[in-house]
Design goal:
Helix content: over 70%
Number of strands: 0
Radius of gyration: 22 Å
Shape: globular
Number of domains: 1
Largest sheet: none
């Protein structure tokens, strides 16, 4: 006689869920997550404080120059992410030590080429613009050569540390570079030399300090017997081309709005946009922390445990990120004027109503960002590209019209609509993936 199968009781199910949550917030993996949060928290705090230091010591136009330069840095970061970082995360995480050393070394050489080319392009573009008489955008673009070169290389070493689980070392690196950066800003402000351009050079100085430390921290991961560079490029490109296209399209559809605002209205308007965004910008860095820490971890989970485990990871990500994200947004919505006055004085109070639109935009980012992470972990990245192309089309239609009609508010409204379009496309793609209808996935693997 067969013994009856025991059915789990409601109390047993709740007990298992509670156990999962306890395991999620404890153990080695969770400690790595906490360190990743601290790491990105340092970056977020540094960006936040840097904007406040600049806003209190320079004109809105100079703050706009800094904001546009900072956003342009993110474009180069988007290219680096697709071609270098995400392949390193996905392919490097499950590799053994010897195999990883060869792969990381060949990818590192490609990273150096990329950083140098982008840096030279910025310097040349700035020189040409200045020569045509553009004495605002030209010098700002030229000044980007230094932060592009130093920031890209520093970030590569940090991501090598993350890929090998050395989160504490990555956090130490971040603390050093951002302490240097803020120290330079404070010194420049005291000397009366602070401007949008010198604010960009401060980023370069901080990143250079982190780069020197990163070279030492990762000394055990390099080998002279690196893989063939052309084969490494081919492998990275075949996987990362959709991510790169999606990242660049995302930058155009989201980050390009302040640049459009500077071009269609003024750099001062772009400065006002940056002041508003700065109040809720820690959310973006929280999402970046999740991406930095979770992408390689999710890639391993998918390889070892399959699709159901990846779905579980997505749900837990929403649960963990939801509390700080919604809490900060609610705080900003309830107290926009007091917060603006506290951080910037009277300069940007007239734009306080824009916080509501900014909160809508970041809420939608919170919804679609974890989906992008699990899609990348599953090597199913085409939907990210398609989502951002759809959002980019929205920008060049509704977005431009909204900026010309409503100025700074129109830029934020356009961003919110772009995020909504991207969220719909990504959610549909994830639903297809869960149902097994992801035919394009097999082409990437």
């Amino acid at each position: 006689m067969k013994s009856p199968q025991l059915q789990p009781t409601k109390a047993g199910i709740l007990k298992n869920k509670a156990k999962e949550l306890i395991e999620l917030f404890s153990g080695q993996g969770a400690r790595g997550g906490y360190l990743a949060a601290i790491d990105q928290g340092v970056i977020s705090a540094s960006n936040f404080l840097a904007t406040i230091i600049l806003a209190r010591n320079v004109s809105p136009t100079e703050l706009g120059v800094y904001a546009v330069g900072f956003i342009s840095l993110r474009l180069t970061r988007s290219i680096q992410d697709g071609i270098i970082v995400q392949p390193l995360n996905t392919f490097g995480s499950p590799m053994g030590v010897v195999q990883f050393k060869r792969y990381a070394s060949s990818t590192g050489i490609l990273q150096i080429f990329l950083a140098v080319m982008l840096s030279v392009a910025a310097a040349l573009g700035g020189w040409l613009l200045t020569g045509t008489g553009n004495d605002t955008a030209g010098p700002a673009l030229f000044a980007l050569w230094a932060p592009i070169l130093c920031w890209q290389l520093q970030e590569f070493f940090r991501r090598v540390l993350y890929t090998r689980g050395k989160t504490l070392n990555a956090t130490i690196n971040t603390i050093l570079s951002n302490t240097l950066r803020l120290g330079v800003l404070i010194w420049l402000a005291g000397q009366g030399e602070l401007s949008g351009i010198t604010g960009l050079y401060a980023i370069a100085i901080g990143a250079f300090g982190g780069l020197l430390l990163g070279i030492w921290q990762t000394r055990a991961y390099w080998s002279r017997r690196f893989y063939n560079l052309l084969l490494t490029w081919d492998r990275n490109w075949r996987f990362g081309r959709w991510i790169t296209g999606g990242n660049v399209a995302n930058w155009v559809s989201v980050e390009f709005y302040p640049i459009l605002t500077a071009g269609l209205i003024s750099f001062a308007a772009a400065g006002a946009y940056r002041a508003l965004q700065n109040l809720v910008a820690p959310i973006h860095l929280l999402l970046r922390a999740i991406d930095t820490y979770l992408t390689p971890r999710a890639a391993r989970i998918y390889i070892e445990q399959g699709k159901p485990a990846l779905t579980h990871t997505l749900r837990m990500t929403y649960l963990i990120a939801g509390v700080p994200t919604l809490g900060l947004l609610i705080l900003a919505i309830l107290f926009p004027k007091p917060l603006l006055q506290l951080f910037y004085g009277e300069t940007y109070l007239e734009f306080s109503n824009g916080i509501i639109l900014m909160a809508i935009f970041y809420t939608l980012m919170y919804i679609n960002w974890p989906i992008q992470i699990v899609l990348k972990a599953a090597r199913y990245s085409q939907p990210i590209f398609y989502a951002n192309i759809a959002a980019m089309i929205t920008m060049f239609t509704f977005g431009i019209w909204a900026i010309t009609r409503w100025g700074v508010y129109g830029a934020i409204a356009g961003q919110a609509l772009n995020a909504l379009v991207a969220t719909v496309v990504l959610a549909a793609a994830w639903a297809r993936f869960e149902r097994g209808e992801d035919k394009a996935q097999s082409k990437e693997e």
